[in-house]
Amino acid sequence: MGPEDLDLILKDLPIKKDPRVLVGLETSDDAGVYQLSDEVALIQTADFFTPIVDDPYTFGQIAVANALSDVYAMGGKPLTALNLVAFPIKTLSPSILKEILRGGLSKMEEAGVALVGGHTIEDPEVKYGLAVTGVTHPNKILTNAKAQPGDQLVLTKPLGTGIIATALKAGMASEEAVTRIVESMITLNRKASEWMQVFGAHACTDITGFSFIGHALEMAIASQVGMLIESKNTPLFPEALEYAKLGLVTGGGHSNRQFFSCRVDAGTNLSPLLMDVLYDPQTSGGLLISLPSNKAQSLVETLKTQAQVGAWIVGQVVEGPAGKIQMI
Ligand code: CO
Ligand code: CO
Ligand code: CO
């Protein structure tokens, strides 16, 4: 059983159709969307996980940036959040939990999100995240299902957080590498989300556990299009290939490859180490944005100059083969 299998179980549930549900489980989108009125749609999502770094405050920041990201990926504005907490209160000092929650709160404040409650259970393993509620206009929802042939694809964070976090756990990561991924993981996708809408994005998703390839494929499948990915233009953290070479690839990376590679034409001369990074599960990864090709370069430049957000054109959307990725 991998995470993808768990996803399939969810999709098998006999859920009744409800016309007010604008985005449900069918298209593997980032968040659910429910129409409240002609003007307002609710966006709802939840995400929590075990610590990826040692510092509790930083872990809190990462967990919240990650949980809010699904709302940003739908083009929404997050409004309220509930803390989801599991903590071994008998074996760990409560001051650690306090730091996690303080870190989380600092990101919610930055995002203008009100913390309105939550739930804590005792558990042998620390886990933290949020259930988030956001809003958007029903006509402005950005799903992963509207990428159009001719679009270009923009990615807003480098890849390789899973591999570098694995190196960190093994005591093999450089300080610079860890600083870089932490800086990236605590960065909100808010500005990327706001600017992609200004530039008329057609579709969006955020890159998380299913890896760059997995989430790009979800978009290709939902949009019934193909994708050409330019391998030399995919942004990687500098140390990602080096640590992949040391075999520091996560279990999630292996199952992503197993699950998705049948839909990827990787050609013959592509580095297997690069593919390791492209299948690497990301935590609080960037947005993958599909937008008209004449807008892509402007979005990239605007994000860099106006928002201090990195952005790279990583490929383009093509007619077909639908639901497949071709690496060039
Ligand atoms: Co997502
Ligand atoms: Co999510
Ligand atoms: Co409760």
Detailed description of the structure:
With 328 residues, this protein is α+β, with helices and mostly antiparallel strands. The chain has two domains: 12-140, 2-Layer Sandwich (60s Ribosomal Protein L30, Chain: A); 152-327, PurM-like C-terminal domain (Phosphoribosyl-aminoimidazole Synthetase, Chain A, domain 2). 38% of the residues lie in helices and 23% in strands. The chain has eleven helices and 13 strands. Strands 8-11-7-12-9-13-10 form a seven-stranded mixed β-sheet, sandwiched between helices. Strands 1-2-3-6-4-5 form a six-stranded mixed β-sheet, with helices on one face. Strand 2 and strand 3 form a beta hairpin. Helix 2 packs parallel to helix 3 and helix 6 packs across helix 11. The mean pLDDT is 95. Bound molecules: cobalt (II) ion (3 copies). Residues 30, 45, 47, 70, 208 line the site of one cobalt (II) ion (CO). One cobalt (II) ion binds at residues 30, 45, 47, 70, 208.
State the distance separating the first and last CA atoms: 31 Å
- Quaternary structure: single chain
Overall geometric form: globular
Strand content: 15-25%
Using the coordinates shown, work out and report the CATH topology of the largest domain: Phosphoribosyl-aminoimidazole Synthetase, Chain A, domain 2
Radius of gyration: 19 Å
Mean pLDDT: 95
CATH superfamily of the largest domain: PurM-like C-terminal domain
User: What compounds sit in this structure?
Assistant: cobalt (II) ion
Structural class: alpha+beta
- Tally of structural domains: 2
The CATH class of the largest domain: Alpha Beta
Helix content: 25-40%
